[in-house]
Design brief:
2 copies of one chain form a homodimer. By secondary structure, chain A is of the alpha/beta class. Chain A has 25 helices and 14 strands. Chains A, B: InterPro entries: AB_hydrolase_1, AB_hydrolase_fold, Epox_hydrolase-like, Epoxide_hydro_N.
Chain lengths: 631, 631
């Protein structure tokens, strides 16, 4: 077979008309976008005839400019004749065929495009905003009050706990040469339990856990616990009325704030004077971090003359975490920063069934339903529009909020993005063959080879599988045994902080956290006996009912900012995240940090959240300039 | 386009030669087996040219008998020309193409055949028969003695256990309307724990657990515990020297047995006289089952004049079972039966790491390595050849024994066959489209739809996933909390007995078992603190090292008999089992019974084992007749 020239579609047409049959070999130089050229682009083409039926795939089509007739010559030496002797006529029919090629080829393209559409995204389902999760007999209750709350470690509970810890049985020795590879190393466990029993200062830690103002309020049948911290601002602070752009101080609020500020200032001055007298003021200063000191020196600078906004931010924890994860982060978010004309009021709830929040009494409370509860909570606190941040289940819930209530969520910050949009999954698969199409080379090893990722996932998801199917079974032992609970929960703070910590005899537990920090979190589970109800969230969220909502395929228009730690359980680059978050503004990729990022690196998270919200504000401003007033 | 006739390949050839181009439409009447006809059969065809490259799929090819040349006309009106103007010639080339079609089609068939070969089966690996699993410092120990063993429930242990049970915390209430669907129902659990604490007769149960003679012996660094029960025979019994066919009584053994029998008979007569005096004899009679009474009436019949064989049988339990599973079965196997010229000596070991057997101190003791230990145990007891029976892990281990030591295993009986031979998996997949190719219609619903099976498997395998990855973590809680252990283990005796029991508020726990039976088994785990080491078997058996042996693809020549309960976790018909067990003699399919079959239906299992061994003996006899003397 001779290649006698390369022609484009038009030339083919013309040539065809001249001599009935035309031979052509398409090379790379053939312009793309046309019917047959398109075929080259996809390496195959569907050819159709007038009847609408189709001939299966021809990979490459050669049309020689000389030959016996209007034939398409395949590289295999089989000639495909266009037009026929008796029943097929050249001319318009031929053109039709070429068009058919274009159309059918186009269908392939459309199928691809359809799989990853920005057009026709499915609409979010409407969930019942009043769905009742508490006991039926409380349905008459319409208590919307916000009650103060304190963490209490009852002496009886402490005594019982210490007793259980001291009567622990002889733990099964770990296998020779094994650190955390088979789970929590029993030698290392003994040290943790010893500390819990003998060195953990229950009273002091209880006090610490009461550092911030805490409340409960009754929502959809459940008492929901939350921390609420308003900014530590002494001047120049105005609250931002939710969702409106710019500096807006509603008259009533402004006067209230002013009054509060005066009172706060007076109290602060009083405290400082008292400390000065008792000599504590020096310690107070030395406790400040370098960056705090830098800001302090700037606090009286000109920028503070501008009024500050207070913006509401919802922070959500996951499993096996708690509100404790945010204790180091909270002051960094509620403190004014140089160069920022806003500061946060943070609301940090315990998820339903976790710690101090009630658990549902009937099946069905999955992350979309928790999203409803959290939105109701924020509304009760007067925040109709607000920012959200989350990790672990918290990240799933804030993502659901951004999907279900895009009007209410001003911006969405997550440190555990895990998009399961069908296009993300498809592209992830394609990337396993061509990683560079999907992810920058330097991050490729965080995703690929997929076999490595799945192997890791398989190894680390046994707890998930069990909790998604039989949480009540394993929950009995974890409710009954503090040692068992410690092993079960703290294992995650080892491996999920740095994967390789599982090869360290002590699991590297205290490399990033203090035992006090870890045990504070554990105490929230132990003192409330909430491990079973917490684990049930896995069963609910992997249920058929929840999955039927298919939220993962509904893109959220809320501006989104992603923070990705080095040792987060899964990594997805912006190109994969965008299917779910089309308004993805930024992805901050860290070379360190693990799953419990707010707990481990609060300063990094705080900086990133400030950057994110600043960008969210700009985004809304630009939207407004564009005349889009939906936000 | 006109269809002007239907021709076969030869006609096509002839026609083509006549006029250069031939048109043809293949209809159903075209004979199959030829190149293009083959294409019809598969609805598409790969056509090759002389260069060896191929043209993608043409689904249907029309060759009109009249036309412009040697063209193949597609139903779309596109003519595919065979042979060319310049470089392709009709005739031999055309024949080559048709041959290519046949060859390529044939390759598909060969690939299929190759995947399921009986030729070239892989050979079993040779494992180290002396691999050391105990502490290094015991390596000098060469103690091969067999020591008597008694189960002891120490008063301290009982006291501590009751104390733990009485201080159990308030269990998390199950969700409304939920029975065992989220795991063990906490209301039901309370009743079990109450019984364990207040009604379980520790002393009596300890005594019961010592019903049979028990021993330990030191193998490969581990003390292995086992029950050994020789037949309850008063006359006509001879031991079968392992592996030899027919009635063989070694002189020394025969005299020893005679002596023992005389002694036993005297003791028995003495006991009966004592009972007659104390009036107990009546009760003794009334306790006998109907079938026992039937046999008793036959015991003096003619058949007993024939000498009986004592054949060694190894019985292996699994997780979360123990030797306790066989207590009801043992007397049924060691008692003479009418119509049988053999009776069993049973050896029932605790698996390493389970109950009263030591656990390995280092990684690597998976089911193939346990197979080595069990064979060493049987050899130590003087059984070079023996029969094996197992369920759960026991079934995996006896299957491994049949694969690794086919010379030693006289017959293999399993009540949990689960073949993972690649052909079995492939055929299972094919069966998901054509179930009737794989399984009888009445059993199809035990396998298909696959989605239902996988969904069930997913729901029921969380424990497996966790135990295969982090057994030491969850082991802490289960070692520390008897309530937790009860929930974790007894859940399996609910759902795995009848799947739908999980919808019963009490899990149907006492429908097939008494609480005493269930708690006996639990006590073996609790009193020995062996749950963690028992669960580690999952980690070892799913390890890369174990899987690399690929035992699942090595057929075992040992005659095999399968007993399949209605509610076993997986069902595979004979056609799927045969890839692994080519000498599969029989499959007994039950319409009832669950995973713990020997425990639940000992009489059924005993009958089936007698049938199986009888058939194994016939099989060996036939083999001998055929002059195959390998056994």
């Amino acid at each position: 077979m001779d290649d006698v020239g390369t022609i484009g579609c038009n030339e083919l047409h013309a040539a065809s008309q001249r001599d009935g049959w035309t031979r052509c070999h398409f090379s790379q130089s053939v312009p793309r976008g046309g019917g047959i050229a398109f075929a080259r682009c996809f390496a195959c083409v569907l050819l159709g005839d007038d009847t609408g039926s189709s001939l299966p795939f021809l990979s490459e089509i050669s049309i020689p400019t000389q030959g016996a007739g209007n034939k398409l010559m395949t590289p295999l030496g089989l000639q495909v004749c266009m037009g026929g002797d008796d029943d097929l006529h050249f001319g318009p029919a031929m053109v039709n065929k070429l068009l058919a090629v274009a159309v059918l080829g186009g269908i392939g393209f459309v199928v691809w495009r359809y799989l990853c559409p920005s057009c026709h995204p499915p609409k979010p389902p409407v969930l019942d905003a009043d769905e009742w999760w508490g006991p039926d007999h409380l349905k008459a209750t319409r208590d919307e009050s916000i009650k103060p709350f304190k963490v209490v470690f009852k002496p009886d509970m402490i005594k019982d706990l210490k007793d259980r810890l001291s009567r622990a049985r002889k733990w099964t020795p770990s296998l020779e040469g094994v650190a955390f590879e088979y789970g929590f190393n029993s030698k290392s466990l003994e040290k943790v339990l010893q500390y819990w029993k003998d060195s953990y200062q229950f009273e002091a830690r209880e006090k610490y856990l009461n550092t911030y103002p805490q409340f409960t309020t009754f929502i959809q049948g459940l008492n929901i616990h939350f921390i609420r911290v308003k900014p530590d601002a002494t001047q120049g602070v105005e609250e931002e009325e939710e969702g409106r752009r710019g500096l807006i101080g509603a008259v009533d609020k402004a006067s209230l704030i002013k009054e509060a500020k005066v009172q706060k200032k007076q109290e602060r001055l009083k405290r400082i004077r008292e400390r000065e007298r008792s000599g504590q003021i020096k310690n107070l200063h030395s406790e400040r971090t370098a960056s705090t000191r830098d800001w302090s020196s700037l606090l009286n600078n000109d920028f503070l003359k501008y009024m500050q906004q207070v913006v509401p931010l919802l922070l959500l924890h996951g499993w096996p975490g708690s509100v404790r994860e945010f204790y180091e982060l909270i002051p960094l978010l509620t403190k004014q920063r140089p160069g920022r004309n806003f500061v946060f009021e943070v609301v940090v709830p315990s998820l339903p069934g976790y710690g101090f929040s009630d658990a549902a009494v009937r099946p069905g409370l999955a992350t979309p339903q928790i999203a409803v509860i959290m939105r109701n909570l924020m509304r009760r606190l007067g925040h109709k529009k607000f920012y959200v941040q989350g990790g672990d289940w918290g990240s799933v819930i804030v993502s659901n909020m951004a999907t279900l209530f895009p009007e209410d969520i001003l911006g969405h910050h997550t440190n555990m993005p895990f998009v399961q949009h069908k296009c993300t999954l498809l592209k992830t698969l394609i990337g396993s063959v061509f990683p560079s199409w999907v992810v920058e080379e330097k991050y490729a090893e965080r995703m690929y080879p997929l076999s490595k990722f799945f192997s890791f996932l398989l190894e680390e998801s046994g707890y998930l599988h069990l909790q998604a199917t039989k949480p009540d079974t394993v929950g009995v032992a974890l409710t009954d045994s503090p040692a068992g609970l410690a092993a079960y929960i703290l294992e995650k703070f080892s491996t999920w902080t740095v994967f390789d910590y599982k090869h360290l005899p002590d699991g590297g537990l205290t490399k990033k956290f203090t035992l006090d920090q870890l045990l504070d979190n554990l105490m929230i589970y132990w003192s409330t006996s909430s491990i079973t109800t917490a684990m049930r969230l896995y069963s609910e969220d992997f249920s058929i009912k929840k999955r039927a909502l298919k939220l993962e395929n509904i893109p959220s228009p809320v501006p989104t900012w992603v923070l990705q730690a080095r040792y987060e359980l899964a990594f997805q680059p912006a190109g994969l995240l965008k299917y779910k978050y089309p308004n993805l503004i930024n992805v901050t990729i860290l070379d360190e940090g693990g799953h419990f990022l707010a707990f481990e690196m609060p300063a990094v998270v705080a900086d990133d959240v400030f950057n994110a919200v600043s960008a969210f504000k700009d985004w809304h401003k630009n939207k407004a300039k564009e005349g889009k007033t939906e936000l």
